[in-house]
Amino acid sequence: MDVFDYLNKNCKEKFSAKSPLTEIDAMILSRFSYLPFDQIKMQKVESVSSIAKKMEHVADKHYIWPEDKKLIERMSKTKRYRDLPAFEFKKRANKRTTEQFSAISVYIPGGTVVISYTGTDSTLNGWREDCNMAILDTIPAQKSAKKYLKYIFKLYPEFDYCLVGHSKGGTLSMYAVTTAKKSIKSKIKNVYSFDAPGLSQKFAHSIPENVVNYIPQDSFVGRLLNHTEKTVVVKSDAKLLFQHNIYSWHVSLKTGKLIRTTINKKSDIADRALKRWINKLTNKEKEAFFDLVFKVLEDSGVGTPNDMMKTGPSVIPKIYESYRKLEKSDRQMFLKMVKLFLSPNS
Asked: Domain 3-267 is of which CATH architecture?
């Protein structure tokens, strides 16, 4: 059973004290913020069903994953979601500062505002900002996430809050609650993060106890950086990095929860190797390496890592050709970094 089975069979009741927000609802809403809101004319307040109606005319290419289109269609047909108010969509993209940020808020009947932070989008700029998390204590999107929370709280101080996010969106939710003022933090009842990287060492040890990070059994992304929050391992039917896609995660219709499992040894090995590699490099070396990676991707024309995951191995010749065109010194540096990562004794 997956998230679409949940929408089809478990969403016949509206949100209420008897049918509160579940972790599967939180996961659905974490994906809701990925929708192409910038491709429609958003009113001050929209319902899920009105958004779905407007998005009927949005071209498929504007959806980061094909399932996102199916998600809004299914949500709009359920009694649970169709009338939920969605408001205050904000988006920021700045190539100069390498920022990619967006968020939207949803009101849950009973007095809770869910803030959904978007993860990495389909731009190279967004992926480069992800890499900067290995270099900087705070990336621009994290600062925007904190400002957005403060802005929404100022508008609606009487409500409780729940922060959700998938991938980088989960990291933004962690950062926002960790750095929030005490008056705001006290109103945040839950933070649901889905396969999200952690925070820099400067902030990781201050992550509150109400933060939970859900990761699949072969998780790679959700173990990056520093984690002190509660972690729940869930079952995915995808392979390796493709488990990052929450549409592959198993749900229980009976309990309204994600199916639990244990972490795979492959995930442990990859996690140790990457952490060892990151700790061996200076920030200057990491920055130089990431510059080369994104130069190769940009020059090859293959798009983002998301695009490559969709296309598969057919992109490898283009990437290799772009790599061959690098200066000899750059190729040598690139190979040195890769060998350092692969060496068990590095």
From this structure: 3-Layer(aba) Sandwich (3.40)
Torsion of CA 311, 313, 314, 316, to 10 degrees: 120
**Stretch among 3-7, 167-171, 337-341 having the lowest mean pLDDT:** 337-341
Work out the angle at residue 203's Cα, subtended by the Cα atoms of residues 198 and 206, and round it to the nearest 5 degrees.
100
pLDDT digits (tens, 9 = 90+) for 231-265: 999 999 998 888 999 999 999 998 889 999 999 98
Lowest mean pLDDT among 40-44, 99-103, 203-207, 281-285: 281-285
Q: What is the CA angle 310-313-314, rounded to 5?
A: 90
Q: What are the boundaries of each domain within the chain?
A: 3-267, 281-342
For residue 309, pLDDT beyond 80: no
Q: Which helix (H) or strand (E) holds 160?
A: strand 160-166
Sequence-ordered alpha helix ranges (H) in the chain? 3-9, 23-32, 48-55, 66-75, 124-132, 140-155, 168-179, 182-185, 201-204, 265-280, 283-300, 305-311, 316-324, 328-342
Residue 148 has pLDDT above 60, yes or no: yes
* H/E run at residue 194: strand 188-194
Cα separation, 258 vs 235, in Å, equals 8
Report how far apart, in Å, the C-alpha atoms of 305 and of each of 122, 308, 313 are.
8, 5, 12
